[in-house]
Amino acid sequence: MLRFGQARKDEYFVSEAAAANGHPEAFWPEPPRHAGENVMKIIKELYRSVPIYFLALVLASFGTAIGAQTGNVAHTNRWESDLTAFEISDHTNPPPSNAVLFTGASNIRLWKNIDKAFPAHKVINRGFGGAEMSDLAEFAGRIVIPYRPKILIIYAGDNDLVDHKTPEQILADFKSFTQQVHTALPKTIIGCIAVKPSPSRGRLLAQIKATDALLQSYCRTNANTIYIDDFTPMLSASGAPRPELFGKDGLHLNEQGRAIWISLIGPILDRYDPPLTRTSL
After folding, report:
1. Do the beta carbons of residue 65 and residue 72 sit within 8 Å?
2. Going by C-beta distance under 8 Å and a sequence separation of 6 or more, which residues neighbour residue 79?
């Protein structure tokens, strides 16, 4: 079971003025702990004095250099431009804290009218690229924790399987991701949408089933973590993916497919973000 408690005080730097206003840029990740003492001092000073959008660029370069030294350059660096764009946008137009945050792969990114799908809730969309579960784990400190969401809905796993990752690897990345989020934000509800059965990836159906079984088992035994089963309603009576739920590419959901997501996600948002506690009231 995940432990509930306060995040370590040294885990994030907090701008008191920004925190008082509930702005997400008040919370930024601690510099890598394997950095030298002098480098740590420099980074801490940057947190206090440099505009957030510029700081994001500095830290991105710093992280790449550290990765090169340790032989652990992230495969996910390909999404740096997407993440930096989010950070620049958040600096100029701070999104609300304590909202509903969606993040993950392109089925989230391409959901342009997601706010209209859940009009009774404050919704933030931070889907990026063709993200994998490993990307969410790698960048949890940038795409989730600064927003301090009340509810977090994620979708990933499709692209991991195409990238020849095993269901067990996807589960390990999901564990890493949820542990990071709940260490910093123990009360945040994490909703994990199951890997959907896409017609274009029918050859992966067995691996998708295995991945979803692992994710479901983990969610059942960890507090504030919910498995959202979209796999079952997206199969036909014969057990095949339903092409009418997808666009021409057989991969991305169309409005009919998103209607299934809305029917599954909506009750979760209403339960954990009821009218009397919504930040808009």
Report:
1. no
2. 128, 129, 131, 135, 139
* 23 band by pLDDT with thresholds 50, 70 and 90: very low
The phi and psi torsions of 28 (rounded to 5 degrees) equal -135, 145
Per-domain residue ranges of the chain: 96-277
CATH superfamily of 96-277: SGNH hydrolase (3.40.50.1110)
Neighbour-count burial for 180-190, b at 16+ CB within 10 Å, e otherwise = bbbbbbeebbb
pLDDT mean across residues, the chain: 81
Contact 127, 102 (CB under 8 A): yes
Q: How far apart are alpha carbons 247 and 45 in whole angstroms?
A: 48
The predicted structure's pLDDT at residue 75: 55
What does the block give as tokens for 221? 């035994």
Please state, in angstroms and rounded to a whole number, the distance separating the CA atoms of residues 49 and 237.
60
Question: Rounded to whole angstroms, how far apart are CA atoms 70 and 52?
Answer: 26
